[in-house]
Amino acid sequence: NIDHDYICRAGERISSPEAGAAYEVVSLLGRGTFGQVFRCRSSAGGQLAALKVIKHEAYCDGLAAQAEEEIAVLQRLGGPASRDDGNIVRMLDSFTHHGHVCIAFEMLGPDLLAVLERDGNPGMPLAFIRSVAQQLLAALQRLRTACVIHGDLKPENVLLVPERAALGGLGQREPHIKLIDFGTAQVGGRVAENEDVIIQTLPYRAPEVLLGLSYTCAVDMWSFGCICVELVLGRPLFPHGGSEHDIVRNTLELLGPIPQHMLQAGRNTTRFFYRPPPPSALGKVSAKTTGWLAHIMAFCRRRRALPSPGQLFRNLLGALVRRREASPASSAREEAFRLKSVRSKLDEINGSGITSLEHAISLLRYEISWTRAMPRRLRPEVLQTQRAGRLHLLRFLLRCLQTNPDERWVPSEASDHAFVRGGAPACKQPLLRRKWSFRGQ
């Protein structure tokens, strides 16, 4: 076919010669730019599996190579297929069938986006968010230890385990979740920016990626913070449908400025920012200084031995300009970047974004068990506990969403926060932290 997808029907058996197993197609789960995913039943024990079938390698060589990289990453992260002790999807098998690379995964339930939509998008209870955060941080710590960058963390790629995701049970307090889709994952401590490789879905894309800087596992922590905000508020931190410029503008409005050193080094900075021209040096010369120079010039006319007035003026003015250029404050002013004024795509789709993260969290309804309620329905001690929980949550989110990746929390630091642990902070968290490094704490 024109899309180079594998053509099959329900009941067809796709064989894995290496494992000596076969997968009987039950139904189509979904399709994408990579190919298709089928619900299958394995001949080994009759268990259900999700079979990812990549487009034909003869026509889509890049996709086939990307699938092989995904297999290598999953092998790097996973242990035996029989183990189920983590929060990363298990790969059961991988093989090539009639020119199509196939990857078999364990069968999982709905994703977090489906959970939000099924619940009417009011935002999930804090106990649910805390459980998801704990498990995602465990998965991200595992990736960081293995020097793997996921590169596409979003609600659609976080799935619930089936036995805890039965219909009517999506509102469980402690869901079991797993991270999927390592098709854009990369291995390495720091990855150089490559204009031919686009990582992260736009509303979850980190500032360093938008600016065209090299990046680390810190980009996944940014996406993690965006997911947590979406679970809390029931809507994304950065609205879908906007442009990269919209994301940058919203980042500045919600989370503060991007450090100057990042703007100066970014390959894409000029897409979003401009540097205003420095003010005229002559315009900085005060009236008092001009009068003083006039007296000097008059004196020079009477004393022909001294330099000509024009030469003296140029020498004095040059000294003032050099002094001004050497001033750190004036240099910082000249190097400051300003955001370009561009029409927002969100205006065209009538999109309404979050204007203040702190204000949005303060407007959340209070909880009685799994229902929402007004504060007057709660006992004072319960109300105080929930207010404290919101304060912990806000501080937690802001540390995960630092625009400077060197100040963004690593998974182990985030796991120790009061919101994730559900208690008081174990220690005072530093305002600034060391640069991202792998394998260490």
UniProtKB/TrEMBL annotation:
- SUPFAM superfamilies per the UniProt record, alphabetical: Protein kinase-like (PK-like)
- Chain positions recorded as ATP binding sites: K52
Give all residue intervals belonging to the Protein kinase domain: 23-420
Q: Which UniProt keywords apply?
A: ATP-binding, Kinase, Nucleotide-binding, Serine/threonine-protein kinase, Transferase
Which GO cellular component terms are attached? Answer: cytoplasm
Any idea which GO molecular function terms this record carries? Answer: ATP binding; protein serine/threonine kinase activity; protein tyrosine kinase activity
Q: InterPro entries from the entry?
A: Kinase-like_dom_sf (IPR011009), Prot_kinase_dom (IPR000719), Protein_kinase_ATP_BS (IPR017441), Ser/Thr_kinase_AS (IPR008271), Ser_Thr_dual-spec_kinase (IPR050494)
Report the Pfam families cross-referenced here: Pkinase
Q: What's the superkingdom here?
A: Eukaryota
PANTHER family noted in UniProt: DUAL SPECIFICITY PROTEIN KINASE, HOMEODOMAIN INTERACTING PROTEIN KINASE, ISOFORM D
Which family does the UniProt entry place this protein in?
Belongs to the protein kinase superfamily.
Write down what this protein is called: Protein kinase domain-containing protein
